Amino acid sequence: MAIRLKNDLLKVIIKLAAIILFGLFTFSVVNVVIFYRYILVDSYYKSDEFVDKVAELTNDLERYYGKYTTVNNRNQKSQNEWLESFDRKLKKDMNKVNAKYNIKIASAEKNKDDDLVKSLKEEKEKEISKIKKEYSKNVDQLKKSFRFNSLEEYRQINDKMKEWKILKYYLIDRTSGEAYTNITKDADSVDIDKYIKQNSNYALKLPVKFNDNNYREYYQYKNISKIFEEDNWKGYFIVPKQTDGYNTYNAEYIRYSFSRQRILKQVILGSIFFVVSIVLAIVFSANREEQDSASGNLEKLYMLIPLEIRMFFILVFSLMYLYTTEKYQYMMQYEYLTPAYLIYMVITIIYSFFMLINLKEFYFMFRDISILKLQCRRSVIGMTIQLIKDMVYYKDAAVKTVIRFLSMFFVLVSGFVIYYQVTGIIGILAVFYLLIYFILMPIFTFRRNEYLNKIVKATRNMVQGNMSCKIDEHNSDILLKELAHNINNIGEGYKKSLNEQMKSERMKSELITNVSHDLKTPLTSIINYVDLLKSGRLSDEEKEGYISVIARKSERLKVLIEDLFEAAKMTSGAVKLNIEKIDVTALLKQALAEFDEKIEKSSLIFRTNIPAGNIYLNLDGKKTWRVFENMINNILKYSQPGTRVYIELIELDESVKIIMKNIANYEMDFDVEEISERFKRGDKSRHTEGTGLGLAIAKSILDMENGQLRLSIDGDLFKAVVEFKKSKEKEKEFV
Q1: Phi-psi region for residue 706, left (φ > 0), alpha (ψ -120 to 50) or beta?
Q2: Sign of the CA dihedral with 652 first, then 655, 656, and 657 last
Q3: Average pLDDT taken over every residue of the chain
Q4: Which CATH class is domain 511-574?
Q5: Is the peptide bond before 306 cis (omega within 30 degrees of 0)?
Q6: In the structure, what pLDDT confidence band is assigned to residue 609 with cuts at 50, 70 and 90?
Q7: Residue ranges of the alpha helices (H) in 35-113?
Q8: What's the burial of 724, exposed, middle or buried (CB within 10 Å: 0-12/13-18/19+)?
Q9: 125 pLDDT band (50/70/90 cuts)?
């Protein structure tokens, strides 16, 4: 019969008790996992801690009794080896000296030069004496060094051996029969069997021999036994019952036994806590319809938190709990029911409750697929996907590009995660993402390729002259849809191109007409005046006038031809620039100074705003001068008399601008884009002299120098802007 809970207080108590008992069960499990060695090993003297102490003492004993038995014989072998090397070096050096001087002495004796023989022998004896002196010095230093080092090492190990007072040892060197011990000063007077029987809490016999009953002990002391066998020792390590001072090993034995009993009790209590908590949970679940809504509402609020954030909380709290466990581990080993111990117990109960809620929700989530779908939609990734879908719905091509880059980025991240064998939830997510990616990506790719094939077929038809071919523009890919739309409207583009070509042909025709006219006018004048001069009916004054006209027309023809050649070079790219560091401010001032006389003769009022400082750019000085010359010429030719002309130089962060403004002396009804074409003149009535090449040449030069020429018209106001880009690398050279 199901137990029906009628009292709300009782329900709260039962639920709280179940949570606390489950937390205590978790606490017991954590303790057992951390201190499982207390269950496996029943005594401190069988533990790894005690084995480490025995190993440390064994190493000290080997150093003390093996290497440092007497001061006189330690390191003698190493010292002798050094002395032998010194002897070999002495012999080698003396042989070199003998060989060096014996030949010279023999030669001097042959020549019967007694003085030279005597001198050479004295030099030889000096060098040999020097070598022997150096040898003696090195030998003395070596002996002092070995004596000092040996004594120092002996003092260190001797002091260390004095510290081993509590753990007793009794060793016998089976080679010499000598006994070593710290039980008494006289090792021969010790009856070791009687001492162990009467005074020891524990005695370890070494070396340990293998048998069926001491498998663990044999492998624990395997390395120590090996040292005993190599030194041909046998003996005992003994923990005495009583010592003069504090007996560390007996205290450790008691602590170990206490900890072992505590862990064994926790195993039993943990099992009881687990069973009781399960029973209480069953009782509570049997009355689910009567549960209070408070806890249910809290769980619902918690479930509203996105899935990834909850998983992040789990990760953070788990890491915090592991860190706390690491900090409290030593305390739990030596203390019991202290405030710190109880605090850690409470932390464990809270953590277990938190994990229990999450495990419960994950269980229901994966059991009911609809809950899982709902949680996925509410997750950060789910909401991000929905947001991306909403953005794509508005046909933003940039968003799709970002999506593709992000998908590839996560593929790379997942690949790295799998390559480095990252485990846990991250590894699972990486594998899951790659599976989804490589399933969906081929589908999208095939659909995209199918649409591309349609576009290719349509363009092939257009190449064959079928401009009426149309492509279906219904596609989810914004870029491909735009491409299809553009191809469908390629006829309009073709017409536009045809118009541009016709315009180009018209301009070529105008070019030929203008060139013919501009060349023919001065040439006709020259021919006519030459014919008049040939007639012979002219006075000297008239002849001089005609010759002056011919000279002026010839100069005009020369300028025209030079402009034609320069324009042709600019167009063909045959001009090479001489790039150098140019002060644009000084160059512009110099250009204005060259036109100073013409400016004075004109009725124009020039207003200039040129900075006083220097502005350096990498340009061709002569070509840039030509740009300024052509533009100032245009101002002088086509400005309304009595008006102002404004010339301004402005330095910006990334560029330098020269702005020129003037009022035209004719109606500017031309296209501003055509005025910089060759032989295009704003003054169609051709009242002024000019080739129409000035702005065209200036624009070509600026294009070659990576500059710009922008023209604009506002009524009668004509504005020209020359802009030079600064190069950061070039600017560094000027600093």
Answers
A1: left
A2: negative
A3: 74
A4: mainly alpha
A5: no
A6: very high
A7: 37-40, 48-61, 76-110
A8: buried
A9: confident
For 137-163, write each residue's pLDDT tens digit. Answer: 776 665 555 544 555 566 666 666 666
Distances (CA, A) of 648 to 502, 609, 610, 621: 39, 5, 6, 19
CATH code reported for the domain at 576-734: 3.30.565.10
Q: Is 649's pLDDT higher than 90?
A: yes
Cα–Cα distance for residue pair 238/191, rounded to 1 Å: 13
Q: Which residues, in sequence order, are CB contacts of 566 under 8 Å at separation 6+? A: 575, 693, 697
pTM beyond 0.85: no
Give the DSSP letter string of 510-558.
HHHHHHHHHHHHHHHHHHHHHHHHHH----HHHHHHHHHHHHHHHHHHH
The answer to whether 685 and 694 are in contact (CB under 8 A) is no
CA distance 125 to 688: 110
Q: Which residues contact 75 (CB under 8 A, 6 or more apart)?
A: 146, 149, 150
Residue tagged 């989810």 (tokens): 476
User: CA–CA distance from 7 to each of 10, 289, 297 (Å)?
Assistant: 5, 14, 20
pLDDT at residue 335 tops 70: no
**Domain residues of the chain, as ranges?**
167-242, 511-574, 576-734
Element (H, E) at 691: none
Q: Burial letters for 615-642: b for 16+ Cβ neighbours within 10 Å, e otherwise?
A: bbbbbbbebbbbbbbbbbebbbbbbeee
Distance between CA atoms of 8 and 291, rounded to whole angstroms?
9
63-92 pLDDT per residue, tens:
777 655 544 444 554 555 566 666 777 777
Residues 579-604, mean pLDDT to the nearest whole number: 89
- In percent, how much of the chain has pLDDT > 70? 71
Only one residue has tokens 């002196």, namely 133
Integer Cα distance of 45 and 236 in angstroms? 14
